[in-house]
Amino acid sequence: MAQPELDQPNGAVATGPATPELTNYTPRYIDIGINLADPIFRGRYHGKSRHPDDLKAVVGRAVEVGCTKLIVTGSSFKSSRDALKLAKEFPGTVFATAGIHPCSSSIFSPSHHKHHDESQSEGEDGDEHTPACDPDPSKPIPDGDGVDLVRSDQIIADLTDLIAKARSSSSSSPELVAFGEFGLDYDRLHYASKEVQLHSFAVQLALAASLKPQLPLFLHSRAAHADFVRLLKEAFGERLERLEKGGVVHSFTGTVEEMRELMELGLYIGVNGCSFKTAENCVVVKEIELSRLMLETDGPWCEVRPSHEGWKYLVEFEAKAKAAAAETVDEPEKPKQQQQQGKKKGQKKEPEVPDRYKVVKKEKWEEGAMVKGRNEPCTIERVARIVAGIKGVSVEEVCEAAWENTVKVFGLDS
Ligand SMILES: [Zn+2]
What family does the database annotate (predicted)? Predict the structure, then answer.
C-alpha cells in the first residue's frame, strides 16, 4: 500500500520517523476500534466530497507508526459490509467486525421507515457516518413505541446470513474477527430509545451465543452498566461461562467498580482518547490490569485533545524523549538538523506535543497530511503513551500487553 512521505516540506510537522523512545523498543499496535468504513476516510463529509479519497494513506500512516493491524468496526449492515470489503482489500492488515450499534438500532423500531430494506441495500444510505462519541442527552427518544418483531426477525436473519457468508470466505487471512459493535448507550438515546436498544442488544446476544463456533464480542457500554451486565449474563451465564471467545468493552468511560466487574467477568477493556477526558477517567485507566488492556483510536472520533486530562502525559512523554535525545551523543546529526529547521521557522514556537504528520483543514487537504478533527489510527501511539504515563509503566509494557491480549482474543497472527 502507499507509504506516505516521511519528510513533510513544512517544518510545522513532525519529528521524523520516530519520536525517540527511551529504549530501543519499536512499538507495535493493533487498533481494535477504527471506523475506517466511515465515508470521511474517502473524503466525504455529510454527503459531500471535500477532498480526494485518502484511505490508503490513512492505512499507510498507521502501518508506518507500527499499527500494523486494524480491526475495522462494523456498526450497521452497511458499515459491516464495508468493513468486510476493506478486510479483503488489505488482507492481513485490516480485519472486520459485524453488528448493529445501539445508535444504529432504530431499525428495530416500528417508526423506522427504511425498514428491512436497509439490511439489504448496498447503495442506500451511502454516506452514513458512524455515530460520534459525544453524548447528546437533549432529545432522547422516549420508550413506548415498542419493537417491530417481524422486522426484528428479518434483521437477525440477515445478520446471521452476513456473518455466515463472511466466515465462509476462502481468503487466507480471516476477515470477520468479532461480533459487534453492539451494546447499550444511554448517553445517546436520541438515536434509539432504551427499549429499542435493550431489544437490539438482547437479540444480537442470542445470535452471538448461538454461533458455532462463537465469535469474540466487540461491545459498547455507555451509562448503561447494570442493564449491560444483566443482558450479557442472561445470554452467557452468571460468570459468562458460555462465552467461548471472550470479548472487549471498547471505548471505556465507566467507573472503577464497573471496570472491575467487567474484568472479573473475564472481559477486556478498550481505551481511546475518550477514556482520558477527566481526572476520574484517568484514575480508572490506572486500574486496568495490563493483562486486560486493549488499545484503540475509535477514529474518526475520540482524538486526544489538549483540554483532556490525559494530554499532560503526552507533554511529559515528549519532554522525556527530548531530554533523552539531547543526551544521545551517537547520533548528533539528526537532532541538529531538526533544531536548525525549527530556528528557520523562527517565529513559530515549537508545540509541546508535536504532530507526527502535518495536519491541515479538510478544505486545504494535501497529500500526506492528516485532516484536522478526523482522528486516524496512526494516533494510537498517543493512546499507548498516555496509558503508560498514567500507569507509570513503559510504553513497551503497554504495547506488548495490548498486542498479546488482542492477538489472543481475536485469533490474529502474532
Ligand atoms: Zn462504541
Answer: Belongs to the metallo-dependent hydrolases superfamily. TatD-type hydrolase family.
- Specify if 20 maps to a domain: no
Instruction: State the distance from the centre of ligand 1 to the C-alpha of 259, rounded, in angstroms.
Output: 16
Ligand 1 centre and the CA of 228: distance in Å? 13
- State the distance from the centre of ligand 1 to the C-alpha of 293, rounded, in angstroms: 16
Q: What's the gap in Å between 172 CA and the centre of ligand 1? A: 29
Spacing, Cα 282 to ligand 1 middle (Å) = 19
User: pTM (2 decimals)?
Assistant: 0.87
Distance CA 252, CA 276 (A): 10
CATH code: domain of residue 361: 3.20.20.140
Distance CA 268, CA 247 (A): 6
* Residue 23 falls inside a structural domain: no
Per-residue pLDDT of the chain (414 residues; tens, 9 = 90+): 444 433 333 333 444 444 444 568 999 999 999 999 999 999 999 999 999 999 999 999 999 999 999 999 999 999 999 999 999 999 999 999 999 999 999 999 988 765 344 444 433 345 677 766 666 666 788 887 888 899 999 999 999 999 999 999 878 889 999 999 999 999 999 889 999 999 999 999 999 999 999 999 999 999 999 999 999 999 999 999 999 999 999 999 999 999 999 999 999 999 999 999 999 999 999 999 999 999 999 999 999 999 999 999 999 999 999 998 888 755 555 444 444 444 455 566 778 899 999 999 999 999 999 999 999 999 999 999 999 999 999 999 999 999 999 999 999 988
Q: How far is the CA of 329 from the centre of ligand 1 (A)?
A: 45
Q: Which residues span the domain enclosing 190? A: 29-410
Query: Is 9 within the bounds of a domain?
Result: no
Q: 149-167 and 77-89 helices cross at what angle (nearest 10)?
A: 10
Cell digits of residue 115: 425498514
Residue 6: inside a domain? no
How many Å apart are CA 159 and CA 172, to the nearest integer?
A: 23
Give the total number of structural domains in the chain: 1
